[in-house]
Structures are given as structure tokens and as C-alpha cells.
Design brief:
five-stranded antiparallel sheet, 209 residues, 17% helix, alpha+beta
Length: 209
């Protein structure tokens, strides 16, 4: 695990800073550039330590998967450093559905189990997918649709993701279409899905209109 954390820090992008760090100030408004910096004299060592990735996520959901982030919103010490991480748990049969991170590249390390992972290019809609197992890593370029599927039968998958931003962002296609108020008729017009299927999926995900 120590090797992975070192790998994560080396691989993630960094940039010159005019100060040592910028621990997030959650009491001040945040903007596109991130959180404001706390005054250095108020910073403690615990601001640079996060233990949340040691706890398995709750996979009792339709995807049988969980993502536990350690981004600037949860881990104040990564604010302004150009890095963050997350833990990914997939129960047997679990999937991480098609989604994007608009603000970051991602490197995914499989710590346990076997999954099919891949992404779709934006220029040719080429699909790059591979079955990967414990110790393997895969990269997902910024803003591209990507996914993971647990294909290890009854074996749970544990993976850790490293991002090139403290705020990578996340948009899941299923939620964008079927958990929103996107009008059913417009979804049908833009996706060529039938209205009965759209209505069924909106009932599953809680969408309206």
C-alpha cells in the first residue's frame, strides 16, 4: 500500500506553488478554483491525514458498487495540490456505470479481484477495454466516458483511484438521464430509447417529467 501511495503522488500532476500548502477553509465560500486557504497557524497535522479509505463502502444499491472519495471536500489537505483519491468497492456482479470526471485524469489500481474496465474515446468513439486483476492499473483520460464491471464471480473487487485534481468531479450517465427532470419525450428524441423503457428507468432512479 505504501508503494501505491508513493505511485499516486508521483503520477498525479503538480504545479509550482507560492506557498507550501492550501488547507481547505470550509467556512469560506468555494469557487471554480477550489476552497480558500486556511491561515497556516490554524493548520494541524490531522488536516493532512485521512482514514476514510480504510472502510469498505456500502454496495447495497442497484449498481452493487460504492465510491468513497478523498477529494478536497472530504480531505482538506489535498486542496490546491492537484491530487485526490477514492476507494472503489464492487460486490459480486457490481458495476461502476458509464461516467466522466470532467476535472481530472484518473489512474485506477486494482487491489483485489478481477474486473473489466475501459473507456470510450471522443474522437472516434473507439472502445478501449481490458480485463484487469490485482496489481494492475489502468488510466482514464480526463472527461472521457469510462466504466468498471466486476467479472470475478463471487469475489468482491477493491480498487483505489488517483486523480490529477483535488476536485475531479463526477457525472454518471444513468443519473443524468433518469434521476433528473430531463423530459421523457426529449430523452426519447435524443437517445432513440422507447418511452416505456425511459419511464421504467425513471421509476428505478427517481427521475421526474
Amino acid at each position: 500500500m505504501a508503494v501505491f501511495f508513493m505511485f499516486s503522488l508521483i503520477l498525479s500532476s503538480s504545479y509550482a506553488a507560492v506557498q507550501d500548502f492550501c488547507v481547505a477553509d470550509y467556512t469560506a465560500p468555494s469557487g471554480p478554483a477550489g476552497y480558500s486557504c486556511r491561515r497556516p497557524e490554524t493548520v494541524k497535522v490531522n488536516d493532512f491525514v485521512y482514514s476514510g479509505l480504510g472502510v469498505a463502502g456500502n454496495t447495497s444499491n442497484i449498481f452493487r458498487a460504492a465510491n468513497t472519495p478523498a477529494s478536497a471536500a472530504e480531505f482538506p489537505g489535498v486542496n490546491g495540490l492537484g491530487i485526490s483519491m477514492s476507494r472503489v468497492d464492487l460486490a459480486a456482479g457490481g458495476v461502476v456505470p458509464l461516467h466522466i470526471h470532467p476535472g481530472a485524469n484518473e489512474v485506477l489500481l486494482v487491489a483485489q479481484g478481477t474486473l473489466v474496465a475501459g473507456f470510450i474515446s471522443s474522437d472516434r468513439n473507439a472502445v478501449y477495454l481490458k480485463t484487469i486483476s490485482s496489481g494492475d492499473i489502468i488510466v482514464f483520460p480526463q472527461g472521457l466516458l469510462h466504466f468498471q464491471v466486476n467479472v470475478g464471480n463471487a469475489t468482491a473487487v477493491l480498487a483505489f483511484a488517483s486523480y490529477s485534481s483535488p476536485r475531479p468531479g463526477l457525472q454518471i450517465v444513468d443519473y443524468a438521464l433518469f434521476q433528473s427532470n430531463f423530459p421523457t419525450q426529449l430523452i426519447a428524441s435524443t437517445t432513440f430509447l422507447g418511452i416505456p423503457e425511459i419511464s421504467r428507468l425513471k421509476a428505478v432512479f427517481g427521475g421526474t417529467n
